[in-house]
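Quick one, tokens below. Sequence please?
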């Protein structure tokens, strides 16, 4: 089940054109407040890296909850700042990427 889910998600990411290696949100660089949005994406990505590196299940669950909270705040901040269409699209791609990885981490944390 875990392998099948990972394959489906990988196909969705590749088919959707989401760049997993993208470290920045370039369209936001010239936007007012764009650096703040980029910083949020970097923080969320760093948290996911910590989730994947942690072997302690309790710590992993705590980090997953924090990751969910920060994703929610990032979405709220994106709406509040009302960035231009290019920045908004890149933020939504970055957040979708993180949501998929979040769900994979949740799935992995509950499987024995």
């Amino acid at each position: 089940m875990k392998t099948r889910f990972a394959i489906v998600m990988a196909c969705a990411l590749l088919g959707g054109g989401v760049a997993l290696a993208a470290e920045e949100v370039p369209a936001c660089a010239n936007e007012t407040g764009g650096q703040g949005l980029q910083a949020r994406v970097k923080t969320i990505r760093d948290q996911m890296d910590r989730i994947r590196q942690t072997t302690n299940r309790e710590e992993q669950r705590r980090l997953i909850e924090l990751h969910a909270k920060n994703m929610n705040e990032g979405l709220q901040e994106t709406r509040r700042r009302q960035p231009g269409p290019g920045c908004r699209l890149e933020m939504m791609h970055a957040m979708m990427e993180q949501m998929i990885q979040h769900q994979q981490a949740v799935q992995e944390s509950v499987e024995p």
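The chain has one domain: 2-110. The mean pLDDT is 80.
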